[in-house]
Amino acid sequence: MRWERDHPPDAVQRIRALRPVLLPGQFVSHLSAAVLWGLPVPQTVDAPVHVTSILPQAQPRRAGVVGHRVTAAHASIRSRHGVPASSPATLWIECGTVLDVDQLVVLGDAIVTERRCATTPDDLAAALAAVGARRGVRKLRAALELVRVGAGSPQETRARLAIVRAGLPEPELQVDVFDEAGRFVGRVDMAYPEQRIVVEYEGDHHRTDAEQWGRDLRRYRAMERLGWAVVRWTKSDLSTSTNGAIDHLRTLLACTTSRVRRASRTE
Description:
By secondary structure, the protein is an alpha/beta fold. It has two domains: about 10-145, no CATH class; about 155-265, VSR Endonuclease (Endonuclease, Chain A, 3-Layer(aba) Sandwich), CATH 3.40.960. The chain has eleven helices and nine strands. The chain has helices at about 10-15, 30-35, 90-95, 100-115, 120-130, 135-145, 155-165, 205-210, 210-225, 235-240, 245-265; strands at about 25-30, 50-55, 65-70, 75-80, 85, 170-180, 185-190, 195-200, 230-235. The strands form three sheets. A four-stranded mixed β-sheet has the order 6-7-8-9. A three-stranded mixed β-sheet has the order 1-2-3, with helices on one face. Strand 6 and strand 7 form a beta hairpin. Helix 4 (about 100-115) crosses helix 6 (about 135-145), helix 4 (about 100-115) crosses helix 7 (about 155-165) and helix 5 packs antiparallel against helix 6 (about 135-145). The longest helix has 23 residues, at about 245-265. The relative contact order is 0.10.
């Protein structure tokens, strides 16, 4: 997977530097825990580090640290880079107070997709059910309905959300395409297999890496020869109010769905 980090690489070192001063019952949490896990959250190099204390331990009071307190029942701690930190499911809940719904979906997609997190959508649901009423719960509930296993990057998640919010059917994720002989052609970000439509999000590395660009073109041509239509998304498609990629996809879906229905009636 190619989750693009929304925080600088040395943010991890800055958080790890706090390890010697953490007291028993204290751990890195919230956005800072997400940074340690290598998950996509907005974070700057000089952002304060979130540290949570398990009651009755005192809340940390230190420059550059945001302190929190929880009961032992609401703490789930794992070691990451040698630092005690909130588990992925728990940090997702914690981030409900500071992230918006789309950011929580991006974070949730990464958590349930990345193997190192060893977390399922059911784990997120269980963690959410356990917290009861608290700030951010409504956002978390809305986000949980949209979290999916298989998203390969934050931008892929955002593209999927744009598709669904435009009223189009939700595509399948990480779909393998084969030729008539059963030979593997490629795995794509999103697809509508019945309509034979591929949706690919192309980050900047697809353009700047000549080898990647060549591989992409060969793969798309092979799929098009097999009758698949390929819709290619870029960052600009997510940042403009009028999305040409959405319009293109809408037209393709309408045409191919009609064709599939006609074919099924003649069988």
